[in-house]
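FORM 12-B: Structure-to-Sequence Request
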C-alpha cells in the first residue's frame, strides 16, 4: 500500500495490485471503516479503480483538534488501519442488463467484428459470457466502468469522430465496457443499447449500480424490449 499527498488537503491510498473485484472490495472496506469512525475533519472519500483519495479540512484539524501536521496525521492514521477489514456485501446479486446489440442500437459493432475477425453472434456470446464488476464510477452520474471483459474484445482505438450517444448505450473503451447514463457526445465505440435507466435523479437512491456490484449482460431482440424514448446514435 502506497500513501502520498494530493495537494494540501487530500491524501491518496494506492493499493498496488492489478484491478480486480478483490481490490475494489479492499477499497470499499477502507472507505467503510473511515466512514464508521465519523472523523469530523474528513470531508470526502473518492475511490477509483486502484486507489482512493481522502479529502480533509486541514485548517479545522489545526484550529480545533490541535493537529500540527494534518498530512502526517492522516498518513499515520491510514498506515495504522489493517486492510484485513472485509467489505461485507450482503446484497451479492448479479445485476442482469438486457442489451440490444448491433444495428442502429450498436452502430459500431459491424466494424468492430471485422477487426476481431469474428461474426456478431460470436461477439455477443463473448460479451455476454463474463460476470463483470463495477470497478469505477465516473464521467456522468451513475456511469459504471465494468471490468471483466473477454480479452479478445479489447480495443486500442476509439470512434473516428464524436457523435451523439443516447443514455443507455453500451460502449467499449480499451479493456472495459460502460453504459452511458445521460445523453452525451463522444467517440466511444457503441455496441448496443439497454432500456434500463441506471440514473434517476428523482429517486433518493438515484444510481442503480454501485461500486463493486456484479453485472451480466443478456442479449435481447428489439421487439422483446420496451424502448421508451430511445433516440438512435447520430454521426
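FORM 12-B RESPONSE
SEQUENCE OUT:
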Amino acid at each position: 500500500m502506497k500513501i502520498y499527498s494530493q495537494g494540501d488537503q487530500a491524501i491518496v491510498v494506492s493499493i498496488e495490485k492489478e484491478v480486480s473485484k478483490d481490490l475494489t472490495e479492499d477499497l470499499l472496506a477502507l472507505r467503510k471503516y473511515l466512514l464508521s469512525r465519523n472523523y469530523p475533519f474528513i470531508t470526502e472519500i473518492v475511490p477509483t479503480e486502484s486507489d482512493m483519495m481522502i479529502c480533509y479540512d486541514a485548517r479545522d484539524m489545526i484550529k480545533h483538534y490541535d493537529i500540527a501536521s494534518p498530512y502526517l496525521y492522516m498518513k499515520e492514521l491510514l498506515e495504522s488501519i489493517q486492510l484485513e477489514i472485509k467489505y461485507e456485501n450482503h446484497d451479492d446479486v448479479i445485476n442482469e442488463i438486457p442489451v440490444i446489440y448491433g444495428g442502429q442500437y450498436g452502430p459500431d459493432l459491424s466494424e468492430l467484428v471485422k477487426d476481431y475477425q469474428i461474426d456478431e453472434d460470436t461477439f455477443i456470446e463473448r460479451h455476454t459470457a463474463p460476470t463483470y464488476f463495477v470497478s469505477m464510477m465516473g464521467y456522468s452520474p451513475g456511469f459504471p466502468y465494468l471490468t471483466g471483459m473477454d480479452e479478445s474484445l479489447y480495443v486500442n482505438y476509439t470512434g473516428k469522430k464524436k457523435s451523439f450517444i443516447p443514455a443507455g448505450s453500451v460502449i467499449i473503451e480499451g479493456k472495459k465496457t460502460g453504459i452511458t447514463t445521460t445523453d452525451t457526445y463522444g467517440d466511444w465505440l457503441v455496441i448496443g443499447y439497454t432500456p434500463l435507466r441506471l440514473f434517476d435523479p428523482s429517486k433518493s437512491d438515484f444510481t442503480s449500480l454501485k461500486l463493486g456490484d456484479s453485472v451480466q449482460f443478456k442479449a435481447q431482440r428489439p421487439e422483446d424490449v420496451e424502448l421508451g424514448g430511445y433516440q438512435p446514435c447520430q454521426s
